[in-house]
């Protein structure tokens, strides 16, 4: 059904957009960049990182641009003082919680918003040990920002495998299998989609990880060969 | 450890199986009642029977504080540690109990016991409060656990009083009002009236009354009903939000325990108004007494054809299913509550869409707080015009206030909107307990704001409080005398939110934790330059950018304290 476009103002520019357009998309169309972290165009948008919040004239709180649709006559500010404070503080809080060293986009964003990585000097960081329990990928949740993408692609957004969900809640939340089982004991089919959508290097191909640990390619082949053979043998048995 | 006998669970599971995922919390509660905790093979069996992915079942188990995945003691004691109970020595009770339990374990004289710190148990008028095996008990700092276990069985009776006794007419006697007693007092006449009216006229009457939600958000009830009644989609649902967990609040508990039919009548009328055939009554997991009371009342109502097919001979059919929460404050947020009924982690959903069009199971839903529904029979009995004579023009009706802390007579007080804070604390509550003068009151619970002695003459109405920069919230007033260390109070509020944040959106997930860490440090007298700015940035970011009401109010009390008492947040200035 064709619906007539709405007119709104974004950062002073009057624009027309289809009412099913999000504020994020409408802003992009006129060249206004709104930062995003958890948003991924192939995943269901959950609006949970809140880095894309903008100020909208008819709303009391800030509004997440990734899911909020444009509305007739509203005035949107994508970089007001309130918006900047929220973005800077969220980035500073992320810095104080997890290892962002392999999340270049977030690091660049933090610089952009003058976020101080040391803003919370005595913060309790999330630093669980690396989980190396399968031949395909490792899980380093000290780098996990809980964007939920891996859980979503493992479930209805792509694979319908449902190997992972959450443990704990609040700040203690972590991505987890059933009773923390090793990945090969779960329904995981090692499709790799979770690794593909991870924005921070928390999920990483095993061989890439071994390479970073300083192993040379020969050792890496040796270290993963038996495991790979094991896989093949099982595959042959089912023929 | 031997494997759990799964056969024990089979009768319950085969009964729940047809419901699928929505039966997950009931199944977990049943399993925990049988085994004391949820062992892995039991979780697996539940997942298989209800056709839920294993990882999802674990996610749910991990989310709710009352579910245990490890063996626990035969006796479980929850000790409340939120502000009102802390004032009455809850920390000492916790320490004493733990010491006694350890000693008894060493000497082998004791069955195993698990002692847990708990969020507000809704027994603030009986501080310091405890739950022993889910049964409320009160303690003194000298109690041993043996004495406490021996004392359970009777529910603590809340002192009920006030300028009005409309909603609380049948509350406070120590007895649950039976259906017989409720009918004898004119009960269910409002339902009969409603059934003789068109559903549209019922909605018009509620709109005309000016009733707004009593759970904290103050949304106009009539508009909510109208929107759901007009929404496309079926079936439609009504939900009673009895997940009362705001620290300091116990009004809904008293209404449920003392006069359950008043709430059921309101709920049945709301279902008639919007055209719902099914309702859910979601009660917080810690309120086992209230759960049993509502259970009995629903059975009574069914027997009397007040629920079920063709209610009182009309064309209208409606029934209620009761659900128990499992220890998650966030499930009082309406969309998180829906997720919980659907058998999921209590993550709030993004709004819009709103519940009136996309609520429970994605269907049009009206969700109302217990006290809101209790107002409904009153409005139909009096008529909107008479009802509006109570209270102020902009805040019509009676209001329940939960008064606790350093007052002479803590309790539940019913007043017309518009009386002053002073009237409530000093005339009704008898003033402060000791000779120490008034310092502050926390209005609206952990999600509320502080009032100082300058606010004592503020009228308790939506407009009166708003113009004073305060919020009504769910009607909580916790009083602190001048000797109380407000830093300790702030620390407890911050801890509450850090423990209860669901972890979905970043501002609240990380913000509640950072706020808690800073206030824990300040409580110990350790200050860092920039703490005030840190708290303000974290606080305003949570307020402005969080996904739901929990995060948006998690800094409310702390930001109000920053406004009134900046000296609390920095080292004492040299004289």
TrEMBL record, chain A:
Keywords: 4Fe-4S, Iron, Iron-sulfur, Metal-binding. CDD domains: fer2 (cd00207). It holds the Pfam family Fer4_7. The keyword Protease does not apply. It comes from the Bacteria. Residues 134-164, 179-208 form the 4Fe-4S ferredoxin-type domain. Residues 4-82 form the 2Fe-2S ferredoxin-type domain. InterPro entries: 2Fe-2S_ferredoxin-like_sf, 2Fe-2S_ferredoxin-type, 4Fe4S_Fe-S-bd, 4Fe4S_Fe_S_CS, NADH_UbQ_OxRdtase_75kDa_su_CS, PSI_iron-sulfur_center. The keyword rRNA-binding does not apply. This is 2Fe-2S iron-sulfur cluster-binding protein.
UniProtKB/TrEMBL annotation, chain B:
The keyword Metal-binding applies. Coiled coil: none annotated. Keywords: 4Fe-4S, Iron, Iron-sulfur, Metal-binding. Residues 487-532 form the NADH-ubiquinone oxidoreductase 51kDa subunit iron-sulphur binding domain. Gene3D superfamilies: 3.10.20.600, 6.10.250.1450, Glutaredoxin, NADH-quinone oxidoreductase subunit E, NADH-ubiquinone oxidoreductase 51kDa subunit, NADH-ubiquinone oxidoreductase 51kDa subunit, iron-sulphur binding domain. Pfam families: 2Fe-2S_thioredx, Complex1_51K, NADH_4Fe-4S. Belongs to the complex I 51 kDa subunit family. It comes from the Bacteria. InterPro entries: Nuo51_FMN-bd, Nuo51_FMN-bd_sf, NuoE_N, Nuop51_4Fe4S-bd, Nuop51_4Fe4S-bd_sf, Thioredoxin-like_sf. SUPFAM superfamilies: Nqo1 FMN-binding domain-like, Nqo1 middle domain-like, Nqo1C-terminal domain-like, Thioredoxin-like. Signal peptide: none annotated. This is NAD(P)H-dependent oxidoreductase subunit E. The keyword 4Fe-4S applies.
């Amino acid at each position: 059904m064709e619906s007539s476009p709405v007119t709104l103002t974004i950062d002073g520019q009057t624009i027309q957009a289809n009412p099913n357009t999000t504020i994020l998309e409408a802003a992009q169309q006129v060249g206004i960049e709104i930062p995003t972290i958890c948003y991924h165009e192939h995943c269901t948008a959950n609006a949970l990182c809140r880095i894309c919040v903008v100020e909208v004239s008819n709303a009391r709180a800030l509004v997440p641009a990734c899911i909020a649709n444009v509305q007739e006559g509203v005035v949107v500010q994508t970089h007001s003082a309130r918006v900047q404070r929220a973005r800077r503080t969220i980035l500073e809080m992320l810095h104080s919680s997890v290892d962002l060293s392999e999340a270049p986009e977030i690091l660049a964003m933090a610089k952009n918003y003058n976020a101080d990585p040391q803003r919370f000097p005595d913060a309790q960081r999330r630093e669980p040990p690396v989980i190396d329990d399968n031949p395909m990928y490792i899980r380093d949740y000290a780098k996990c920002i809980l964007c939920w993408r891996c859980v979503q692609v493992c479930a209805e957004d792509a694979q319908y495998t449902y190997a992972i969900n959450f443990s704990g809640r609040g700040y203690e939340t972590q991505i987890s299998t059933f009773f923390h089982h090793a990945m090969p004991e779960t329904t995981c089919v090692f499709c790799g989609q979770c690794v593909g959508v991870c924005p921070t290097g928390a999920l990483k191909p095993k061989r890439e990880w071994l390479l970073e640990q300083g192993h040379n390619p020969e050792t890496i082949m040796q270290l993963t060969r038996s495991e790979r053979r094991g896989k093949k043998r099982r595959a042959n048995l089912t023929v | 450890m031997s494997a759990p006998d799964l056969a024990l669970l089979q009768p319950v599971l085969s009964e729940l199986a047809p419901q699928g995922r929505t039966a997950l919390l009931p199944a977990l509660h049943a399993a925990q009642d049988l085994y004391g905790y949820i062992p892995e093979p039991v979780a697996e069996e539940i997942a298989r029977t209800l056709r839920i992915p294993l990882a999802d079942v674990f996610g749910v188990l991990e989310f709710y504080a009352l579910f245990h995945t490890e063996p626990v003691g035969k006796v479980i004691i929850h000790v409340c540690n939120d502000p009102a109970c802390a004032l009455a020595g809850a920390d000492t009770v916790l320490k004493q109990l733990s010491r006694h339990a350890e000693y008894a374990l060493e000497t082998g004289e004791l069955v195993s016991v698990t002692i847990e710190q708990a969020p507000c148990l809704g027994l603030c008028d009986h501080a310091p409060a405890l739950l022993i095996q889910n049964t409320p008990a009160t303690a003194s700092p000298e109690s041993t656990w043996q004495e406490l276990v021996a004392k359970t069985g009777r529910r603590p009776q809340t002192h009920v009083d006030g300028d009005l006794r409309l909603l609380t007419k049948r509350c406070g006697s120590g007895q649950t009002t039976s259906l017989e007693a409720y009918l004898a007092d004119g009960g269910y006449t409002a339902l009969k009236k409603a059934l003789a009216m068109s559903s549209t006229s019922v909605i018009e009457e509620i709109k005309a009354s000016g009733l707004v939600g009593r759970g904290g958000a103050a949304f106009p009830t009539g508009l909510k009903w109208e929107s759901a009644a007009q929404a496309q989609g079926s079936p439609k649902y009504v939900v009673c939000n009895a997940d009362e967990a705001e620290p300091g609040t116990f009004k809904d508990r008293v209404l449920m325990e003392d006069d359950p039919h008043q709430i059921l009548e309101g709920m049945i009328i709301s279902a008639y108004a919007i055209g719902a055939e099914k309702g859910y009554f979601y009660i917080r997991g810690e309120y086992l007494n209230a759960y049993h009371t509502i259970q009995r009342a629903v059975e009574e109502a069914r027997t009397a054809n007040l629920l079920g097919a063709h209610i009182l001979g009309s064309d209208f059919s409606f029934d209620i299913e009761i659900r128990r929460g499992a220890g998650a404050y966030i499930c009082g947020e309406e969309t998180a509550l829906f997720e919980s009924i659907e058998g999921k982690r209590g993550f709030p959903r993004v709004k819009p869409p709103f519940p009136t069009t996309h609520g429970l199971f994605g269907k049009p839903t009206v969700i109302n707080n217990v006290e809101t529904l209790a107002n409904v029979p009153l409005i139909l009995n009096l008529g909107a015009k008479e009802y509006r004579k109570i209270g102020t023009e902009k805040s019509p009706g009676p209001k329940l206030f939960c008064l606790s802390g350093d007052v002479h007579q803590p309790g539940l007080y019913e007043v017309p909107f518009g009386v002053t804070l002073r009237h409530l604390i000093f005339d009704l509550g008898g003033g402060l307990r000791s000779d120490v003068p008034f310092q502050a009151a926390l209005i609206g619970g952990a999600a509320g704001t502080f009032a100082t002695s300058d606010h004592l003459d503020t009228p308790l109405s939506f407009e009166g409080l708003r113009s004073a920069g305060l919020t009504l919230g769910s009607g909580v007033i916790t009083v602190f005398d001048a000797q109380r260390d407000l830093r300790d109070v702030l620390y407890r509020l911050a801890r509450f939110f850090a423990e209860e944040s669901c972890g979905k959106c970043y501002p609240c997930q990380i913000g509640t934790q950072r706020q808690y860490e800073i206030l824990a440090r300040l409580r110990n007298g350790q200050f860092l330059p920039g703490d005030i700015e840190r708290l303000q940035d974290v606080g305003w970011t949570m307020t402005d950018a969080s996904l739901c009401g929990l995060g948006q109010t998690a800094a409310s009390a702390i930001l109000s304290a920053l406004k009134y008492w900046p000296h609390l947040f920095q080292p004492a200035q040299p004289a």
